[in-house]
């Protein structure tokens, strides 16, 4: 179901005790008309779930393996994630693609597994600066969607558009740039057989309390995936845009 979602990707930040302290302090102010999701590191998930008990804030993880179990040292399965109290999983974040060899093919396998197990996959796509400057944005995102979501329609997924050049750089895409690509994503997945009007599409990349409102006013932007600002009190401003 298409709804507004504000998500915080903590990346490799906040130990369990730091997660607990931060969320105990802020959870009472995290009430929102929109769905709010926090993605802590694996080892801080239990503390986050505990701190958010009784609130409507959801918890997710930043990655998962596509196999059910087995000899995959260092990996985590969908069942483990579900049992820990998570409802969401981030798939194909650009840092996973860049530093950990995530491909469109593994994104596809992971998205299928997440859906099969009842987790909500938040699939990340986005072009890098070189690709944007060469006018390849739509080619790159079209490919990421066509391979990453192949064989999945009409299931319900969440998509996050995160231009790599806007992540952690302070350089947010303009509202129009973000809208243009989110509209392209909606059109592309409609052609792939998804009920595109029912799918939430988020923008991510240097979202802050000061720029969230105008992004949210764009017709094809249904939320934000927030990195750096989700680690601070500014996350409350973002939730309450
Ligand atoms: P940022 O990160 O908000 O720090 O740019 C966004 C993300 O990587 O999800």
Mean pLDDT: 96
Bound molecules: 2-phosphoglycolic acid
Distance between the termini: 21 Å
CATH architecture tag: Alpha-Beta Barrel
Strand content: 5-15%
Number of domains: 1
> Which geometry do the CA atoms define?
globular
Secondary-structure-derived class: alpha/beta
Low-confidence parts, pLDDT < 50 over ≥5 residues?
none
* Strand arrangement in the largest pleated sheet: 1-2-3-4-5-6-7-8
Question: Helix proportion of residues, in percent?
Answer: 25-40%
| CATH topology descriptor | TIM Barrel
Tally of alpha and pi helices = 10
Number of strands: 8
CATH class: Alpha Beta
Mind telling me the CATH superfamily name? Aldolase class I
Description of the molecule:
The chain has ten helices and eight strands. The protein has 241 residues and is α/β, with parallel strands linked by helices. The chain has a single domain, classed as Aldolase class I (TIM Barrel, Alpha-Beta Barrel), CATH 3.20.20.70. The protein has an eight-stranded parallel β-barrel, surrounded by four helices. β1, α1 and β2 (35-39) form a beta-alpha-beta unit. The site of 2-phosphoglycolic acid has 13 residues, from β8. The site of 2-phosphoglycolic acid (PGA) has 13 residues, from β8.
Topology:
Layout: E1 5-9, H1 16-26, E2 35-39, H2 45-51, E3 58-61, H3 78-83, E4 88-91, H4 94-99, H5 104-117, E5 120-125, H6 129-133, H7 137-148, E6 158-161, H8 175-191, E7 201-204, H9 212-216, E8 223-226, H10 234-239
Parallel strand pairs: 1-2, 1-8, 2-3, 3-4, 4-5, 5-6, 6-7, 7-8
């Amino acid at each position: 179901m298409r709804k507004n979602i504000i998500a915080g990707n903590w990346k490799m930040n906040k130990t369990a005790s730091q997660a607990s302290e931060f969320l105990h302090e802020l959870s009472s102010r995290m009430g929102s008309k929109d769905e709010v999701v926090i993605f802590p590191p694996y080892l801080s998930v239990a503390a986050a779930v505990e701190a958010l008990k009784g609130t409507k804030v959801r918890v997710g993880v930043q990655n998962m393996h596509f196999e059910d179990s087995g000899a995959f040292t260092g990996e985590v399965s969908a069942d483990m994630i579900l049992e820990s109290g998570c409802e969401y999983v981030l798939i194909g974040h650009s840092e996973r693609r860049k530093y950990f060899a995530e491909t469109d093919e593994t994104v596809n396998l992971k998205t299928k597994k997440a859906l099969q197990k009842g987790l909500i996959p938040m699939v990340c796509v986005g072009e890098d600066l070189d690709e944007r400057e060469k006018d390849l944005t739509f080619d790159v995102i079209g490919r990421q969607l066509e391979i990453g979501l192949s064989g999945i329609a009409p299931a319900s997924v969440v998509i996050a558009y995160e231009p790599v050049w806007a992540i952690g750089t302070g350089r947010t895409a303009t509202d129009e740039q973000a809208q243009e690509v989110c509209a392209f994503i909606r059109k592309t997945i409609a052609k792939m057989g998804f009920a595109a009007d029912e799918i939430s599409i988020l923008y991510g990349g240097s979202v802050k309390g000061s720029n969230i409102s105008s992004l949210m006013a764009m017709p094809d932007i249904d939320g934000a995936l927030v990195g750096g600002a989700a680690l601070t009190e500014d996350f409350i401003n973002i939730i309450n845009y």
